[in-house]
Amino acid sequence: MPKHKRHKIQDVILGSSTIKEAWENKNPAPYLAGSKKGLDEDLVRFISKEKNEPQWMLEHRLASLKLFYTIPLPQWGPDLRKLNLEQITYYAKAVDRQSQDWKDVPQDIKKTFDRLGIPEAEQKVLAGVGAQYESTVIYHNLKKQFRDQGVIFEDLDVALHEYPDLVKQYFMKCVSPALHKFAALHGAVWSGGTFLYIPKGVKVDMPLQAYFRMNAAGMGQFEHTLIIIEESGVGHYIEGCSAPRYGVDSLHAGCVEVFVKDNAHFRYSSIESWSKDAYNLNTKRAIVGRDAHMEWVGGNFGSAITMLYPCSVLAGIGASADHLGLAFANKGQKQDTGAKVIHIASNTSSKIQMKSISKNGGISIYRGLLDVRSGAENVVSNINCDALILDDISQSQTVPEMKIANQSATVAHEASAGKINEDDIFYLCSRGLAPEEAATMIVNGFINPIAKELPLEYALEMNRMIELEMEGSVG
Asked: Are residues 279 and 130 in the same domain?
C-alpha cells in the first residue's frame, strides 16, 4: 500500500488520540442508579420484558439460568474464585433508543467512540458499523449497496423482532448454554450484539465492524454475535472491545456463533483490549460446511484474566479453518488463550498459529484442542505455538490436547519459547535506536505473521498497543 494512504488510514482510526486514552477515559454513569447488582430470576425476567421478547426467548433465558446455578466454575485454567459474581451489574441501559445517524448519539457517549475513530472509519473503510455501550447497541448502520443485495446487519435485539424465525433457527445452536458455566450465564442475561446475514452468492468486499465498550465500574457485558453466511457467500467481520480501569472487577462473557455454509468464506477479526481489572470469558465457535473456509484472527491485550479459545467445527467434506492469534500478558495478567478445531468430516484441514508475549511477571498460556473424529479420513492439521518471554519473572505455558481417532490423519505440532536476543538489541542500538525502541521493533517483527492478516487499521492499533505495553521494558 502506498505510504501516503497508510498514513491517511492511520489518521482515520487513531485520530489525534491514542489507544491509551481509550483505556483511561471514562464517562459518568447515572444510568447505574436504576440498575441492581447480582443475578436472580427477577432480573432475567426484567431483561426479557424490557426488550419485549417472544416467549421462547424468555424460556431460553430461564433454562440457561437454571444451568448456570448447577454448573461449577471451570476446573481447569486460571482460578476464577476471586470473581465476585454478586457484585456485577448484569444489565444497564445507557440510552433509550438506537441511532442510525451518528449526530443523534448522546454527546458524552459519542465522544468516547469519536476517540476511537468509529464514525470516520465507517465513512472511509467499512461496509457497516455497530457500536454497543454497556448492555445496549447505541448505533447501527449498513451501506445501501449491501442492503440492496439482501445483506442483513442489525443489532441482535432488533433482529429478534424483525427476523424472528431466522434468529430462533440459529440462536445458541452452535454454542449450547450447557457448554460451560459462563455460556449458561450468557444465555440467561445476553443483551445487544450483532446479527449478520449474507445471502447465497453475495460477496461483501468491505469489512463490517462492531465495537463494544464497557464504561461503568463493575459492569458485565454479554453481547451476542450471530453470523450466517449462506452458500458461496463471502464476508469479513471485525470486533473491537475496550473498557476503562476502575479497580473493581468487571466481566465480559460474550458469545459468537458463526454458520459458514457450503463453499462460503468468512473471516472474523478481533482486537480485545479490556482493562486490567476485567475478566474476559468469551466463547466463540463456528460450524463450517462443505468446501467452506473459516478464519479467526485475534489479539488479546488487557484484562486480569482471559479465557478464550475460538473453535471451528469442520462438519462438511473439504472444510478448512485457519486460527491466528496473539496474547500479551503484562504484570498481574493471565492470558489463557488458544484454539479448538473439531474435524468431523473427511478431507478437512486446519492451521493454528498462536503467539504469546509475557512481561513483568505476566503469564501466557496456550490451551488448544485438536479433535479428529473416527469417520474423518485424510485430515491435515498444523499447529505452531511461539512464545516470547521478556524477562526472568514471566511465564509461558503450552497445554495442547489431541484426540486422534482416525489413523489417516497427518498432524504436526511445534512449540517454541525464547527471549529477545541481546545481540539484536545491540545491533539495532548501533544503528541509532534507543533500547526500548529496539525491543519494540523486535516484538513487532515477532507478531508480524498475525498483524499482517488484520485489516491495516487494526494492525496499526495492535502495533500501538504493543508500544504501550512495551513502555519501560528495557533499562
From this structure: yes
Q: Around Cβ 441, how many Cβ atoms within 10 Å?
A: 15
Query: Contacts by 406-409 with C-beta closer than 8 Å and gap 24+?
Result: 406/372, 406/373, 406/374, 406/375, 406/376, 406/377, 406/379, 408/377, 408/378, 408/379, 409/343, 409/372, 409/376, 409/378, 409/379, 409/380, 409/381
Spell out the alpha helix ranges (H) of 40-104: 41-50, 55-70
- In single-letter form, the type of residue at position 197 comes to Y
Read off the pLDDT of residues 188-199 as tens digits, 9 standing for 90 and up.
999 988 999 999
444 φ, ψ (degrees, to nearest 5): -60, -35
Q: What is the pTM of this model?
A: 0.85
Domain-located, residue 302: yes
Beta bridge partners of 403: 371
Q: Is 69 left (phi over 0), alpha (psi -120 to 50) or beta?
A: alpha
Structure confidence by residue, pLDDT tens digits, 146-178: 788 899 988 899 999 999 999 999 999 999 999
Q: Decide if 225 contacts 210 (C-beta within 8 A).
A: yes
CB 103 within 8 A of CB 185: no
Which of 275, 292, 308 delimits the end of a domain? 308
Alpha helices in 171-208 (DSSP H): 181-189
Query: Is residue 70 situated within a structural domain?
Result: yes
Contact 154, 162 (CB under 8 A): yes
DSSP state for residue 33 in the 8-state scheme: G
The separation between CA 305 and the C-alpha centre of its own chain, rounded to angstroms, equals 14
d(CA 285, CA 312): 6
Q: Is the pLDDT of residue 262 over 90?
A: yes
Pair 297, 425 in one domain: no
Measured from the Cβ of residue 33, the count of other Cβ atoms closer than 10 Å reads 7
The per-residue pLDDT for 84 is: 93
Query: Which residues span the domain enclosing 201?
Result: 3-308
If phi over 0 gives left and psi between -120 and 50 gives alpha, with beta otherwise, what is residue 41? Answer: alpha
pLDDT at site 364: 94
Whether residue 125 has pLDDT greater than 60: no
State which of 267, 282, 308 marks the end of a domain: 308
Q: Is residue 382 part of a domain?
A: no
Q: Is 58 helix (H, G, I), strand (E, B) or coil?
A: helix
- The total of structural domains in the chain comes to 2
pLDDT of 266 > 60? The answer is yes
DSSP track, 282-295? -EEEEEE-TT-EEE
Q: CB 380: neighbour CB atoms within 10 A?
A: 16
Q: Is residue 403 in some structural domain?
A: no
| Lookup result for grid cell 513502555 | 471
Q: What is the pLDDT of residue 122?
A: 38
